[in-house]
Amino acid sequence: QVQLVESGGGLVQPGGSLRLSCAASGGIFSIYAMGWYRQAPGKQRELVAAITSGKSTMYLDSVKGRFTISRDNAKNTVFLQMNSLKPEDTAVYYCKAALGATMAGGFWGQGTQVTVSS
Predict the structure, then answer these.
(1) Exposed/middle/buried for 7, CB within 10 Å: 0-12, 13-18, 19+?
(2) What is the mean pLDDT of each successive set of 10 residues along the chain, which is 118 residues long?
(3) CB contact set of 81 (below 8 Å; sequence gap of 6+)
């Protein structure tokens, strides 16, 4: 069983930046693919960015060039650096750990709210 705790969300103005963190415990962090998802009100949850155990990355088209996912296996933590934030990035952001690059199954964090508004 893996436990995931997200932090770093908040209110930011358009064009601003936030850095989300997800701390993992209860498993061998380095073997998991890690993903950041988001869910806006009335919308389906979507995969924003993912990083494999080998540190290959993928991004949702709408965040490419603005968001960067990274991981620190020594600290059992995955990060999402979000720059040039837009109001449409407003959502609850969730961290997920899975044993394959498809991100099927796995474990979820509780989520952290990101609000982009002036």
Answers:
(1) middle
(2) 95 98 93 96 96 95 98 96 98 95 89 97
(3) 17, 19, 67, 68, 69, 70
